[in-house]
Amino acid sequence: MTATNAPTTSTALYANAEGKPVVTRLPMPALRDDEILIKVMYAGVNPSDFRVLKFFDCRRRVMGHEFCGKVLESPGLAKSPFKAGDIVAGYVNGSNDRPERFGTQQEYISIPPAWAFEVPDNVPHPNVAGLPVVVQTANDAIFNRFKLPLPQDAKGPIEGTMVIWAGATCVGMSAIQLARASGVTSIIVTASPKRHEFLKKLGATHCFDYSDESTPARIKALVESAGDVPVWGFDALGTMTTPSPQTLLASSLPRSDRVKLVTVLLMPEEGFEPCIGARHYQTSFDLPNGDKVDIPPNMEAADRMWKALGWVMDHYGKEFQEIPVEVFKGTAEDALKEVEKVESTGRFGKLVLTLPWVTKE
């Protein structure tokens, strides 16, 4: 399919003027010289798809942050490394005011070519659609915030302990494997007991039940038994429950200047630093209390993240094991219900939506 014979509308999962998620039809993205037109084949789902609507009052917004799709003919190809027919995946800007054409849970998107990468043959298309957000978020934590070596630069075991609260989240599963590839040999995680054996296969060395009230004290004792070594604490959940995962993680670790704390939540508690899945563009959010989150682009940090993502692509299914994926195929209306469930009830593994949507009879 080329841009000239593509449909004139794109069906989308959309937050309307009131911020309510609905299914709507939007005009096809206008062709631009600085962007590439993509037919979305699969769109990844993340808890943040709904959370940004609640916490950051996002309106008139197509939902979704990651995708796998086919490049179509468009003027922007002339200044890109891609050609029509290429299968690409990517991660788009998540700011409050992003244009409708960037949201990935719709049939066609138009994005800057720097936000996409060609999908290697060894990674299934549904799987790659669910990797950019979680892997890049973990990459920012491990290689930018914790400043650990990239997997391709690792030179053997690293002294220190990684503690990941919520190791069975997709970000947590990514972080376990990336930390191991970086050289970390002591990786402590919390998760439901039924996930412990799986997480050990990914590289976790010690697993604790997140719901056990004794877990923080037991983790702290284990960490302290290692002596005066670096400790990297990562909240891979980022919920605003009471007590929060940040509070539980901090209470699991000794007070020391050798302890570094990072959270996926953009509203970090004292002592924590936030991480984010994209550092190659400006990210801005309006907070409910009237404050504003502004994360400027950092191309050096972004470069490390893209290199780490490239390592994941090259080693997918081997040194980086597959994160469980559930592929949904159905109507846009039913897809919207599934997206909401991810935020409200959670799930193990990644939900990926198949596009185009199934049409109603």
TrEMBL record:
It comes from Gibberella zeae (Wheat head blight fungus). InterPro entries: ADH-like_C, ADH-like_N, ER, GroES-like_sf, NAD(P)-bd_dom_sf, Trans-enoyl_RdTase-like. One of its GO terms (molecular function) is oxidoreductase activity, acting on NAD(P)H. Keywords: Oxidoreductase. SUPFAM superfamilies: GroES-like, NAD(P)-binding Rossmann-fold domains. Residues 8-353 form the Enoyl reductase (ER) domain. This is Enoyl reductase (ER) domain-containing protein. Belongs to the zinc-containing alcohol dehydrogenase family.
